[in-house]
Amino acid sequence: MSDASSTWFDGLERNFVDVEKQPGIDTKHFIEASRSLVTLFDLLGSTTFGTVISDMNGNIKKINDRYTAAPDRSQTLQSLVHEEHKELGKKANATEGLMWLLRGFEFTSKALRHNVSNPDEELATSFQESYNGTLKQYHNFVVKGIFSVALKATPYRKDFYEKLGSEKARVDEQSVAWLTALEEITTIMQKEYTDNKNFGF
Description:
globular, about 0% strand
């Protein structure tokens, strides 16, 4: 952050608020905003959430690799997944990577939404609640154990929000706008997968 009044949101490569959504979700914008989201876990504890960071970065790379390889067929996320699946079927790495990235985003957004809506609740509680309702169903015993340890090590609410910025009113306003945009994009793309079960993942 460049000065005392700056917030974490001010320094993002791209805010989800600024991701173009018509006629589809702009792939390049989405990749940039996704890379920015991953840095949020540095504030939560890069060691604690190392598995999450590594997983999200790996899935973002799969999407970016496809975008780079076939930009004319990947301008929007919708065109990317349909064109890649048509071409490669179940070997469509970016389509599968995006699916897992969206699951991670749902986990993140539900935890933060719960925390914003419950100002007296600690982050560990919000993230555990979200994990139970999102990622847990996809994880085996070992991964569940890793997440259990990570979630317990989540920083205190007060410390985390101070890292987002010193001006509470501004941080609160930006948090809600960013979170709402993230939720909207996640919902749009999850519906794309629900409506196209032939993706087969």
